[in-house]
Design a protein that fits this description.
6-stranded mixed β-sheet, 2 domains, 3-oxoacyl-ACP synthase, 48% helix, alpha+beta
Length: 149
């Protein structure tokens, strides 16, 4: 398995774990809503149901975001080698190394640390369209793109 495939798999695992967590939350909320019984304090019951409805709506929004993120990840071709920085590029720099895919944070593969970042992040926006040898300055830190995969 090449480095891009390994990073991709880690991102897939990250998003699948988030999906399972949100689905479990939705299931718990649904269970709570169906088992919530009317108490003598009717207002308390209605407040509890309203809170559960809000939680369900929030979890539904998270689920929607996860599905959008999965869709972005599915657009990456792990077999393609990049010549310019784009979605799916693995970027080795003189400083930090990046994988432009989804925001999944720090990933270590073969003792090399990469940061999986979304194409919408400020650093990714700076990197997009650049090639090997380009020198960039981000937050007063200068670095050079050394290799693209």
């Amino acid at each position: 398995m090449n480095i891009k495939e390994a990073l991709y798999k880690q991102c897939e695992s990250f998003i699948d774990n988030r999906l399972k967590t949100v689905e479990a939350t939705i299931k718990d909320i649904q269970t709570s809503l169906t088992t919530e019984t009317k108490s003598t304090a009717g207002d308390k019951h209605e407040t509890g149901r309203a809170m559960l409805q809000l939680e369900r709506e929030k979890a539904g929004n998270q689920l929607s975001e996860i599905q959008k993120t999965k869709e972005i990840l599915s657009k990456i071709d792990v077999k393609k080698t990049a010549t310019i920085v784009s979605l799916g590029s693995v970027i080795y720099t003189s400083g930090i190394h990046y994988f432009i895919a989804i925001s999944a944070g720090e990933i270590t593969i073969d003792s090399i640390t990469f940061y999986a970042i979304s194409a919408n992040t400020p650093i990714a926006k700076l990197l997009l369209g650049k090639t090997v040898g380009d020198t960039l300055n981000f937050r007063n830190v200068e670095f050079t793109i050394e290799k693209l995969v």
